[in-house]
Amino acid sequence: xxxxxxxxxxxxxxxxxxxxxxxxxxxKGFRVxxxxxxxxxxxxxxxxxxxxxxxxxxxENEDDGFVLSFHLRQKYPDVPVILVTAVTRETGLQFNPVExxxxxxxxxxxxxxxxxxxxxxxxxxxxxxx
Amino acid sequence: MTDAPQRLKLLVVDDxxxxxxxxxxxxxxxxxxxxxxxxxxxxxxxxxxxxxxxILKLESEKPDMMLxxxxxxxxxxxxxxxxxxxxRPEVLTVMITAYAxxxxxxxxxxxxxxxxxxxxxxxxxxxxxVRKALSHLMALKKARQLEEEKKRVRFQFxxxxxxxxxxxxxxxxxxxxxxxxxxxxQDPAAYDRVVERCMVRLSGMRxxxxxxxxxxxxxxxxxKRELVQVDLRELAGASIDTMASDASRRGITMSLEAPGxxxxxxxxxxxxxxxxxxxxSNAVKYNRDGGMVTVRLERQDGAVRISVSDTGxxxxxxxxxxxxxxxxxxRNEKTKNILGSGLGLSIVQKLANAYxxxxxxxxxxxxxxxxxxxxxxxxAAAGSGE
Lengths: 130, 386
Hints:
The structure holds two protein chains of two kinds.
Chain A: E1 7-11, H1 15-27, E2 31-35, H2 38-47, E3 52-56, H3 64-75, E4 81-85, H4 98-105, E5 109-112, H5 117-127
Parallel strand pairs in A: 1-2, 1-3, 3-4, 4-5
Chain B: E1 6-13, H1 17-28, E2 31-34, E3 39-48, H2 51-61, E4 65-69, H3 77-87, E5 92-97, H4 102-110, E6 115-118, H5 123-181, H6 188-220, E7 227-231, H7 232-249, E8 253-257, E9 264-268, H8 269-285, E10 292-300, E11 303-310, H9 317-322, H10 344-354, E12 358-364, E13 368-376
Parallel strand pairs in B: 1-3, 1-4, 4-5, 5-6, 8-10
Antiparallel strand pairs in B: 2-3, 7-9, 10-11, 11-13, 12-13
């Protein structure tokens, strides 16, 4: 990954998560586009095609992550998508299990929050090629 | 209440068809008005001529209540009772026993029958017995319903609480991963920012835990309320001091107005602090930079009025309507960077109600909000217990 700077779009309504992803990814030489809502994310996607997208599953509106992922797939079918989520089954909260929607979304990876650096790196190495 | 009467199923078990018919006739149009359920109960009657048939109908028809003759041709009434206690213990049974057979009556109640009725009985005696049984049955049902509702609310509360505690933990854990890796925080400013954010999230988590403790204490009535003469002017001044550094960092001016001088009421000091601290800290948190917070204390007609006004982001009418629920936080573009437990106003409202007082809100988006708590100078006797 030497010759060209890659761009990652990170969309999450949690400012701490955005800050963390930004720190991790920029230390790996990525250019990070941050958005804190689906509309902001969509706007950035109008302007450019990222090399990777990291999207929070549930933002202000429960489905925002799914919807954004869907739109991104429509516009740029080749851009890999990593969905992240803090909601796991153990909380007992009502939500649509990731497995149900996995096929529809065709996310390339789903990672639980908080994200470990090496985990993210592994997925990036797997998903982003030259 | 003018609800339609509740229909319960009564299974009559007797080998004499004449007896079954007589019971059915007496109870067909029998309506019991029960104050405990705030309504009327009527019975749908089903019949069985033997213990075996009774067990089949207990399974298929799921009656609520049973009138059970002791002397039956095959298995006895006591056998049916034994089956019932293993399989459908919620069915309430009144045992019909032969006249003067006290022994049977005693063993029946030992085996779980609610009551017994000695043969021969008059329709009036039958009705009195059924009325007694129904009222017991409905009280049990109501208690069970309340218990389930309580469990559900509790589960929901704990689920949301777990989620709210996980959020800051996750954020802090994420920052620790970054520190652990070192390569991402070579810049000292980035390092400082990581530490600062961890502190902020930790203090938010501590606030949440403190709020939970306040809330459970108020709800359980565990903590004794110590009613003393409290000068709100003094407490409001202290709340303002507590928030002073946060306010000055954002150029927010705070002022206290008490046109009547002292503002004294009979209350628990700690609880008045909780009310004022929550309102004043909200007024700072949801303010704009360079804004104003005004705390105004007034006494009139046996009540005190605490108004806390800000010049902040304000709320729409829809947002105001949701505001006092537990864990409700108004989430929008303007509030996304503001941390809170979502319990503060729920606590304020519970406390105000406990004193027989009220909380009201006036708000306009982008102009600000005024929260007004009105409390009686002396708490109402009814409200001070819990």
